[in-house]
Each structure stands twice: as structure tokens, then as C-alpha cells.
Amino acid sequence: MSAGDRSLLTRAAALDEADPLAWCADAFVPAGEGAQVVRAYLDGNSLGRPLRATAARLEHVVAHDWGTRLIRSWDEQWMDLPTRLGDRIGRVLLGAAPGQTVVADSTTVLLYKLVRAAMSAAPAGRTRIVLDSENFPTDRYVVAGIAAELGLELDWLHPDPAAGVRPEEVAAVVDERTALVVLSQVAYKSAWLADLPAITQIAHDAGALVLWDLCHSAGVVAADLDANQVDLAVGCSYKFLNGGPGAPAFAYVARRHLEAGMRQPIQGWMGHAQPFVMGPEHVPAPGIRSFISGTPAILGMAGIADTVDLAERAGLAAIRAKSVALTEFTIEAYDDVLAPRGVRLGTVREADRRGSHVSLGHDRFRQVVATLWGEHIVPDFREPDAIRLGLAPLSTRYTEAALAVTRIAELLDAS
Ligand SMILES: Cc1ncc(COP(=O)(O)O)c(C=O)c1O
Ligand SMILES: Nc1c(O)cccc1C(=O)C[C@H](N)C(=O)O
């Protein structure tokens, strides 16, 4: 290890020492022990780490709510869990007043439901959807599938892959034929933080609605959905919300659309006004509850509330400040030791246009990541040549980022 690498680790240790959110990392289940201990986890933007409180909560749910109260728990607490938890996510993380957020399904399924809902509400003549080629595959596949199903047209944006969609690119395509604009607030590859207020306003000025995918921003960046007059949003809970693998997603539908009778396409019994009447016809439940279709995933929801509690104690502004500081530190470390070794930076340098990961490119990264995983240093690899360093402000330490960057440099030197 060179003197430069040592000073990187020393600087990181000092930042950890001074970190006002350092106490949050202790709330997580230790990642292994002995020879198996994870030395650096940098994939919290793909699968967040579990909280200790969640391990205890799951045990309680199994032994008490499920094991002892059994079917009675539906009446006692499970039936409104999707909207109760949705309201908490909305209040603490999304800037959404109660009654507009629900937890259900996967992001993919909620995207389908919300895009179809928006299209059912679109005035005649508005038959075009705007989306971008850099969005996560599921968003592109779902929208393209709906376009084929309903005979709609797509307006594809092709943003700079190392950045993301800019307001002027949206302004150039929306017009009186646009029904909906579907974008991610933080791009899954580059971490580009879209200008949500400006783009939402541009879509509205053209008479279109906007659906924001918040998968990579929920829990780390404010969306202020109500204040920004957002129409629709989805997001997943197993990244920065640490809900666990396959934990259900959330959907937001602005009150004005619920009051106007916006309807989703999968009218199952759990979104019925009176599910247990089991009548001949579907009568939608009032409000956001009508966006539920089948039985809610109660076990999958158990962990989400623990992160919302922790985030409320930490405060979203402090979480965002740490996220910015972590990405800033990682980019400085990149400048020091990786840029000289030919690594490309795939994330913007402007902190206010950046989410909570740093994307790096090198044609030897597939092999580098395989070696890192074997050493219990865990970033992720995205085709064709990218390492993403996911920096989850509640759980990631500066020393984890420093260790990953240092080892990447050493592995590039060794091969
Ligand atoms: C932006 C974005 N949208 C959607 C998804 C996936 O959704 P799902 O929970 O349905 O797998 C992900 C990640 O998996 C994502 O990064
Ligand atoms: N959802 C995932 C999964 O089920 C398996 C592995 C990874 C994921 C992810 O979340 C990928 C992630 N959305 C991404 O940005 O690449």
C-alpha cells in the first residue's frame, strides 16, 4: 500500500470519526464475522442491509402476529398496513400528505398499474409517452409493452449516459399529444439526479402528467412530491429503505387524481370497497386503497418501517448531506488513485445533480469485481464495464469507500 493510499484511509477514518450519522451504522445487523466479515458493502442501492430492529420485528411478527393471533391479525392490524406504512413513507421520505401512498406489489407491477391508470385518464388525442433510453430496463419494458397493448406512440429521449435527462430535452418533445412523461429521479447507472421540479413543470405546461421512478432516490434524496405537484410515483423498498429482498414497492397517486376517479387496471378483491362482502361486481375502495389488487405481503413489509423510523430520527436533510459527502469523498479518491490508472468517471461532478452512488468504468472491471467479492468487498458490476459504488448514508462508512477504491487500484496494478 502506497503512502497515498494510506492517507486516503486515514482521511476516511477521520471522516467516520466526525460523522454526525455514525450512530446509525450500529443499528444494522453486523455483516458476518471472522473470516466471513464483509469489509466493505457498497451495494445498498441494490439490496440494503437489514436493521437489528428488523430481525427482532420479524421474530415478533412470526411468533405473535402470525403464530398466535393468526387470522385475527388481518382485522387487528394487517388490512390497513399498506396505507398506514404508505402514509409514513410519504410523510418522512417523500413529502406526501396522507392518503396518497400505498405499499404493494413490485415496482414493475406498480409501474404497469400507474402507467395504465394515467393512460385511462388521458384526454382524447393524448396518445404519446415520453421516456428515456437510459432508464432502468423494467421501466422501458413496461412502457413499451403498454404502448404495444394500447397502440400508443413513444417519444424516446437519448440522454448522455454519464449524466441523464435534462429539462430542455423534455421541453423539446412534449406537446399537445403527450399524455405522460416517465423518468427516474436518480438514474440507476450514472446516479444523475434529474431536476424533478423543473421537468414536472415542463410536462404540466404541455398538459401532460409525470410519473417518477424513485427507486434510487427514496430514502436518500427528497422528492417533495406534493410541493412539486407530481402526479404519480413508484419506488422500491429493498434498496435504501432496507425492506429486504423482494419487499413490496410503493406507489404515490396525487390526491387530485384520486378524487377525479383515476383507476388502475388490476381490479382485485383487496382494492374493493368491501372485500369480504364478496359481491358480484368490483366497487373500488375509496382513495389510494383502490390501487391494491391482491393480498398484501405482510412479512415483506415488516422491515420497511424500521428504516423509516431510523430515517425520521436521523432527518432526511442530514441523510442527504452525508450522501453528498460520501459521493464527494469517493470522487476525490477516484481523482487521486483511479483516474491515473485509466478509470473513467461515469457520474457527474456537480453534487446537486448526483444521487447516492458513484459509477466507474474500466474494461477490466468484470474480473476486478469477481476478485473483490471473494475478498468480501462488495460493490456491483453493470454491463459492459461499470462498477457502481453504492453509498447508503445510514450504513456506509467512509472507510468502506476508501478500502474499495484502494483495492480497485491495487488490482488494476496487479493484473
Ligand atoms: C429504477 C428502477 N426501477 C425499477 C427497479 C426494479 O423493480 P422491481 O422491484 O420490480 O424488480 C429497479 C431495480 O431493481 C430500479 O433500479
Ligand atoms: N432488484 C434486484 C434483484 O432482484 C436482484 C439483483 C439486483 C436487483 C436490483 O435492484 C438492481 C438495481 N435496481 C439496479 O439498479 O441495478
Automatic annotation (TrEMBL):
Key words of the record: Hydrolase, Pyridine nucleotide biosynthesis, Pyridoxal phosphate
EC identifiers of the protein: 3.7.1.3
InterPro entries, per database record: Kynureninase (IPR010111), PyrdxlP-dep_Trfase (IPR015424), PyrdxlP-dep_Trfase_major (IPR015421), PyrdxlP-dep_Trfase_small (IPR015422)
GO terms classed as biological process: anthranilate metabolic process; L-kynurenine catabolic process; L-tryptophan catabolic process to kynurenine; NAD+ biosynthetic process
Pathway note: Cofactor biosynthesis; NAD(+) biosynthesis; quinolinate from L-kynurenine: step 2/3; Amino-acid degradation; L-kynurenine degradation; L-alanine and anthranilate from L-kynurenine: step 1/1
GO molecular function term, any single one: kynureninase activity
GO CC annotations, alphabetized: cytoplasm
Source organism, top-level taxon: Bacteria
Oligomeric form and interacting partners: Homodimer.
Family membership noted in the UniProt record: Belongs to the kynureninase family.
Protein name, as recorded: Kynureninase
Protein species of origin: Kineosphaera limosa NBRC 100340
